[in-house]
TrEMBL record:
One of its GO terms (molecular function) is 3-deoxy-7-phosphoheptulonate synthase activity. Its cofactor is Mn(2+); Co(2+); Cd(2+). Pathway: Metabolic intermediate biosynthesis; chorismate biosynthesis; chorismate from D-erythrose 4-phosphate and phosphoenolpyruvate: step 1/7. This is Phospho-2-dehydro-3-deoxyheptonate aldolase. Phosphoenolpyruvate binds at residues 113, 316, 347. Belongs to the class-II DAHP synthase family. GO terms for biological process: amino acid biosynthetic process; aromatic amino acid family biosynthetic process. Signal peptide: none annotated. It is an enzyme of class 2 (transferase). Mn(2+) binds at residues 74, 379, 421, 451. InterPro entries: Aldolase_TIM (IPR013785), DAHP_synth_2 (IPR002480). It catalyses: D-erythrose 4-phosphate + phosphoenolpyruvate + H2O = 7-phospho-2-dehydro-3-deoxy-D-arabino-heptonate + phosphate. Transmembrane segments: none annotated.
Amino acid sequence: MSNNIEQAAWTPDSWKTKPIKQDVVYDNPEELSTVLTRITNMPPLVSASEIERLRAQLKDVAEGRAFLLQGGDCAESFDYCNPTAIEDKLKVLLQMSLVLLWGLRQPIVRIARMAGQYAKPRSSPFETVDGKQIMSYRGDNVNSIDPAARRPDPQRLISAYLHSAATVNYVRMLLAAGFADLHRPEAWDLGHVRNPSIRREYQSIVNRLTDSLGFMDVIGATGQTAVSTVDLYTSHEALLLDYEQALTRPVAKATQTQARRGAYEPATPPRNRLAPELCDFYNMSAHFIWIGDRTRQLDGAHVEYFRGVRNPVGVKVGPTMDAAELVRALGILDPLLEPGRVTLITRYGADKIAKYLPAHIEAVLATKHQPVWCCDPCHGNTTTAPSGHKTRSFDAIISEITDSISIHQQLGSRLAGVHLELTGEHVTECTGGSMELSHLDLPSNYQTFCDPRLNYEQSLDIAFKIAKVFETQREESHIS
């Protein structure tokens, strides 16, 4: 298959001409159509100008001027749409980014797996519960975790939209109110960091950063706006294409002047009458969307949908993707060779990364593509504890990250980001870390209904270790 394969004209629904994986079959198509029409007529959740700002920032990441931090729940529950859960998740991402900022001396681009990560791909459409075969749980936007409510319900798509909108609105409010203000380290409670050495090291970083910012303010080197808030973008795996299409909106192409000032005007309704050549199409359900490992078939519906939206997009890359297939995927998704247009989210496992990552890096380096290389060290390191709980080892997660950094460096490439499944809560789902959790600790606060997540302290541990690796590299380069 040639990398320059001729593509048919793209439309928001051209994916329907392709074979699809992980599709949801509803028993009432008329109800589904009514729901999708309603969502199509609802306001977008994010704006084109925000998406363009993220595109520009990911270009910086791809070209080595910034670092990507992406994290959040494996699959969100509608119950997570509450102030405490949102604040906890936002806090841990902001604190991690502060540590990374200190260690890397580069801007941190923050993307949350949040406000839309409600769908869950499954290896089988059915599962056995209490000896009975029932439909698998597919995520809150499809059906319920309750075994008695597994029928796919189109009304849950409305609920997904409303919960996403409420989450986005609350995040915007928190950031506008100074939740991320680096001048107020006292607002970033370290009480749950039980390990004294981590607490001292983190407090030292916060103190040095705030001292630096205070000095910059005194000499007038920065304004209050620059350090009192941050950009935080939303993301999810775009699994349910009917829903994604309903929130795909045409936006009139920007003039050069509009593009320079970040102004992107929404198309004037009726949207379906806007000439395609006069507009760009944005998925306005989130700033960033990705294709999962189960739905990245080159001739499939998901790749077809993704190639036409202007959002920056991610692709999960694992042991089952060969190097030639990766290059072809980049040819389809990034035909214009735009740095940062595609983020390659690698997920191998600590015991497999040395076998597969080098060939993937070398294949991409042989092209003109400049993707963001991002390590997902969680999915390939899932095991089952003696208690039956799914878990992940902190040591294996750290090993995959550090090996990824090293392999990229050896091949003349650069690891430019991490993609983590985490929570700001103090759960006991992964073993290890500075809390030294063992398999025996898992039942004490095991809350996930999906995959195990790094807890608050383990997430900070990850940030410290990444920061230390890059800090050491920077010091060694100065010496040499």
